[in-house]
Amino acid sequence: MQLKESGEMYLETIYILSKKSGYVRSIDVGEQMGYSKPSVSRAVGLLKEGGYLTVGHDGSLVLTDLGREIAERTYERHTLLSEFFVKIGIDKEIAAADACKIEHVISSETFNALKKFVRDKFQ
What is the pTM of this model? Predict the structure, then answer.
């Protein structure tokens, strides 16, 4: 199953929430993303079918290894792109919004080159 941008966003959100509290419910995802319960429920079902997450007996959302890999990659891209944009003078909110769009379409080759540039230039 090819994961779309919205699926990556859900996985990234679950990943971020799990880092904060260790326990993530569908309602937490909906609140974080501003989506309705039915939208989240549908997305969770699709992500579960695709092997990206499991749902515990208590309703908790748990990323599979595949889901975690995608979430971590998306989060790393978002974080690095946001930081880079801020360092070159972009407003923090605009930088985060632009990073959120770009993180899903940037190639691995371009991202890795940008990551190397940022590390060499700014660290």
Answer: 0.90
